[in-house]
C-alpha cells in the first residue's frame, strides 16, 4: 500500500452467506473510486489481495487518462462463480459497499453478471451495470468497441498520416462481444479483416457478415497486416510474439497487453505505434461514468469518441519526450492526478493559515 500510495483496503466477511471479499481503493483524488467486482477461485488469500490491489491501481490510471472525475478501486470476491453465488452473498457485499458511503462504486466484472449487480443494488446505490429498468445503459460492449475504433483511427493517423482505414488490413484477435463490434466498424470503414477466435460461432458470424479471412489462433501474430487489434487475452505482447509481428500499429481492446513493461520498450524501438490498452478500451468506463450522472446515450457516445483525441495526445507526448507510448499514457494520467493533489494541498495550507490568524 505504501509503495503505490493506496488509500484503503477493506476485508469483507459474512459467515452466514459465505462472503469473503477484498475491496481495494487506490486513489480518490479525482473522485470516488470505481471498479468492478471480480469473482474468482483464488488459490490463496494473498493472491486475491494482490489482484485487488493491482486492478484498483489500474482503474485509477484508466479513469485519469480518460479525463473522468473518478478514482480507482476494485473488489475481488473469493469463490467459484459457477457454484458459490447466492442472493445473500451479493447483498452482504452490497452492505459493505454501502458502508463506504460513496468512496467506492462497484460494477460487473469477470465472474459476475447483471443479475448479481441487481442483488447488490438492493443494499446500495453505489453500483452500476444493473438492469435497464434500474437505470443502466445496458451492454457496454458497443461503446467499448466504438472507443477502440476511434483510438485505432488515431493510431493509424500517427503511423500512416491519415486516419482513413479503408484498404488497410487489420488482424483482429478475438471476435467476441467487443471484437465483433470493432470488426463491424472496421468493415463499414472499408478495412480488410483477418480474424481468429477459439469460438467457431463467433468466427462464422464475422465471416458471414463482414467477409473476414480466418487464421488459426497461433498464426494471428505473424500475419502481414497494417494494424494488429488484440481483443482477447492479456500479456500477448511478449518475447514469443514480438518477433512474429508484421504490423505498424497495435490497437485493440484487451487488457494488460504487455506481458512486461520492457515489451513496450521493444515495440517502440521497432517503430510500432502502440495505443495503450487502458486508454483505448476505456469506452465502457466512460459510458458508466455518464450513467452515474443520469444516462444520456448521445453524451456518452460523444465522450467515448473523444478517445481519438486522448490517443493522439499520447502519441504527441511520446514523440515530444522520445518515450514509449505506455510511459506517455502513465505520465499523462499521473500529471492530472498530481496537479489536483497539489491544488488541494495548497488550498488546505491556505485554509489552515487563515484559521490560525
Keywords:
357 residues; 12 helices; six-stranded parallel beta sheet; globular; six-stranded mixed beta sheet
The number of helices is 12
The poorly predicted ranges are: none
Measure the end-to-end span. Answer: 37 Å
The helix fraction, in percent, is 40-55%
Strand content: 5-15%
Give the overall average pLDDT.
Answer: 94
Extended strand count: 12
Largest sheet: 6 strands, mixed
Radius of gyration of CA atoms, rounded to a whole number: 21 Å
Structural class: alpha/beta
**SSE run:** EEEEHEHEHHEHEHEEEHEHHHHH
Plain-language structure description:
- With 357 residues, this protein is an alpha/beta fold.
- The protein has twelve helices and twelve strands.
- It has helices at residues 45-65, 87-99, 114-121, 141-160, 177-188, 200-210, 261-269, 277-280, 283-292, 297-305, 307-321, 325-356; strands spanning 8-14, 19-27, 33-34, 37-40, 71-78, 104-105, 169-173, 192-196, 213-214, 227-230, 249-250, 273-274.
- The strands form two sheets. Strands 1, 2, 3, 4, 5 and 6 form a six-stranded mixed β-sheet that branches.
- Helix 1 links the parallel strand 4 (37-40) and strand 5.
- Helix 11 (307-321) packs across helix 12 (325-356).
- The protein is globular and about 55 Å long.
- It starts with 7 loop residues before the first strand and ends with a helix.
- The mean pLDDT is 94.
How is the secondary structure organized here?
Blueprint: E1 8-14, E2 19-27, E3 33-34, E4 37-40, H1 45-65, E5 71-78, H2 87-99, E6 104-105, H3 114-121, H4 141-160, E7 169-173, H5 177-188, E8 192-196, H6 200-210, E9 213-214, E10 227-230, E11 249-250, H7 261-269, E12 273-274, H8 277-280, H9 283-292, H10 297-305, H11 307-321, H12 325-356
Parallel strand pairs: 3-5, 3-6, 4-5, 7-8, 7-10, 8-9, 10-11, 11-12
Antiparallel strand pairs: 1-2, 2-5
Helix pairs in contact: 1-12, 2-3, 4-5, 4-9, 4-10, 4-11, 5-6, 9-10, 11-12
